[in-house]
User: Fold these one by one.
Assistant:
Number 1:
Amino acid sequence: MKRIVAMLLIATATLPGRADTLTLTSGETVTGEITAETSNDYSVRIANPNFTITAIRIIPKTNVTSIVRDTPEQQARRAAFENLCRYHLQPDQEFPTAYYRQVIALMEKFLATYPDDDVIRSKLAQWKTELAQVTKGLVKYNNQWLPPEQKTAARKLALEQARLQAARKNLQTLQQRLDDLQTHQKDLNKEIETTTTELDRAEAALANLQDFVEPVYEYRPIGGAPFALSTRRGPIVWSPPFWERYMIGENVTRHPLRTYYEQQIAYNRNRLARLQTDLDQTIRDIRVIRADIEKAQADLK
């Protein structure tokens, strides 16, 4: 009982003090409470249709064409109306009978003062109808009135259906993930095959290249047959040298395509390593997903 009274007091204490209607240059009307005013704008506290959530809206004064403020009588009626609009019936839960009676008493008091309010009159009829159902010992579930044991069974069934729906959704997500991984695995295998072919071609081409080899020679003298030369001073015997050429090494000039093929080989080897790493991880992921699918299928049984 104390909890119900506290709920009523809280609802009453949070009501706005007055309502102001601002007409904007765009034609829009804003109804709320002007909580602050500066030389440039208004701060207006507005609420949702059920008056359960409020927010502050800043409106420039240049956008306002007129302001209509409630009279004290209008303020009192609006405050009482907004207070009653805060009470809502729940689709899956009934209230204690004392709570129904207190809310009904508030609505009847309001209608005694403002009998022309059809909104509160309609809400009053709904609350009285629910009170009658609770008095019969029925409970509420999914906007239906049931005996307590049927509500327990219905709630259990709903929970089981929700569990199965979640399991089906999870299984569908896992299956889609598996399909994506298997497609990725096929793509990786194709890329590995293509890269391996390119690597083999580059290695074969490199092996068939012939570098340019040029021998390096030196010359050394060797003895020749002596012969006589006649000079003014007399004959001179001279043995002219013979020169012998012999190879001392080779100059090797790399084939101009050798560097190109070496770069191709290095690139394809690195690419193969990356692709293989990706493939290994994909295979591991597929194993994990398949295990998860088996668990999800078991949850559906």
Number 2:
Amino acid sequence: MIKLIAIDLDDTLLNKKKEISSRNVSAINNAVTNNVKIVLATGRPYFRVKPILEKLNLLDDNQVVITLNGGYICNATNNKTLYENVLNNQDIVKIIEVINNAKLCFNAYCGDNIYTEKLEEKIKELPVYDGINFIFKSNDELKQLSYAHKIIVASSADIITKHKNYIVDKLNDYTVVQSTPNFLEVLPNNTTKGIGLQEIANIFNYSKDEIMAIGDAENDISMLKFAKYKVAMKNANDSVKKIANFITKSCEEDGVAFAIEKVLNIANN
């Protein structure tokens, strides 16, 4: 029986316009009514998840959310931290120097604060940045940060593709994962959505056989691998589809709702 469903946000629960359909809301509410714990798992910081939790009626002390790609796990009201892993200042300096050598732009995520030196014009227009107030600092000031949950290289998809192998090679002591075509994320070692999901399973005493995970991108692979029921979106990367045991409809076709309705029915009967 499925007791927990972990769901990615962008291009999974949210469509390309960053909206949640009424069918997805209804399916999630029905799952909760049937005693299934819903865990949103995202690379976003908590303040970017809270409005979604509210819309899903999940803003409750008993609900849990994975943010910052597993770097910060808290209850849905964010008054209790369940797990946290951060980059220290030495890590930050090393990562920034590698990114500087590639002449790329980056953002440093420190809790709900997002620091940057500059943003590419094309990147500013991405829907994921709507409503974000960046804190602008010089490169030297950014190297003085005492901690960060993650550092994101943000650029056009072709630039990310061009430099990905270089960054992965130079920063092989860290978790480097591509969350969208425009974002390459550098996190502390052993920080993934999958490890975050494992932490939650341990805290609430769930087995892998009771967990379903739904995602579309490279940073979702770890949590799909951890769960018994591995669901890839129709719009998912091929690497995600390859490990899935069920491919649902796309994020434009209420794929999360379709998966919850279909897979829960199969697993629980």
Number 3:
Amino acid sequence: MMLRLTFYTLANRTENSITGGMKTSIKTQLIRSLVAALTALGLLAFLLWYTQRPPTLGGDFKLNHNGKTWQFSENAKKLNLLYVGYAKCPDVCPMALSYSAQAFKQLTEKERENVQLIFISVDAENDTAESVSVYAHQFNPEFIGLTGTTAEIDAAIKPFGASYIVEKDPKSYLGYSISHTDRVFVLNKKGIVVESIQSPRSADEIITKIKENL
């Protein structure tokens, strides 16, 4: 009787041990499957975010300023406004630069120390480094005028999503016209676009963006 009881007890313990082991194994597999599923979902979410996120615009660039190389990374301020145009532009360029100049007048001295405006001329054939600088200074003595060869200009403005087209125009006194991006880009110290103002039509638009990002 004792032998039967002992055998039954051992058999029962063995069965419980096997059953418990199976339950533990199933539980472990479920946990591993859950972790794998969550990892896959996390990876999928990251890929969706990465492929659909807005592209980062901007970066470092260098052009000619008064006969010398001017590199953004060496001259950047906390906030930088960038406008692309040309010195003989009859309308949108002087309008954007005039509004920008008015906005700069509303800044405190400390704020002006942390902000600058950069004007890039895309008229490589007709605008010299000196003439672009003179043009920019007409609006504000602290505005920076830059230009370069066609290849240098293209390399500088392309990362910002800016573009231009030079066309012959018999109706223009210049004999040509340039269609270009009419947008003030607001850049951080690394040259990355943090804001932009499409076709600015008042100084208030510009001063608001400056103060929001300083």
Number 4:
Amino acid sequence: MDRDTIVGALRPGVLGREVEHYQVALTTESIALGWLRQRGAGHGAVVVADREIAARGRRFEEWTSVDGLAASVIVKPELPVDRQDLLWAHGLLAARAAYATVGIRVAPHWPEALLVNDTPMGLVKAESQLGPRGVASAVLTFRFDVTGVDDDGDSRLVLLAALLEALEVRLAQPPQAISEEFAEHDPLVGTQAVVQMLPRGSIRGTAVGIDNIGAFGVAGTSGHVTRLPVDQIRSIERPHD
């Protein structure tokens, strides 16, 4: 891929009006953050890389993909601080929709993974920069594994174009619509789950999904629902016993 090919493949819209492309990058998110802070990147600017050499997930775990695509999208949403975790849902839902366009069915796993039969196929990461009125800007990073996709030379372009279109749609939707859509596709909802918490501890109960501010809920035996923001979640697992 190259920048001109990417720009030509994107549908007209707000996201993707500015594009930078790299064959190899340390990480797309580091470039996007630098673009935002030092060069004043606008809403919808996108950094794309064919390969990253230091990709990390939400908790700094290494992400490696033999055949992949990485993209970071700069957004300037109108979100209050207490709803910044919804950006993770925007990202997961957009990535799920994008994967569907290339024939891959993935399930979102809160707060950052896209799974096929419990195997990670992609990661999402949301980094928010706060201002006096709420979320001033955010960098949403997407890492796709496209191993096994029937590739006629432009599957990555199709994936990227679909991602930006789907993300633009989700960013315009009200919080209730986002939480309801996520519940439709989250396989954990209604099942037993164990949330490993940060810095320590765990909660076990029935997963009820995310609410309108992006907090993940777990219902105990009494019916009381504990809501956890993303920064308090280490991982969400199915119980082994």
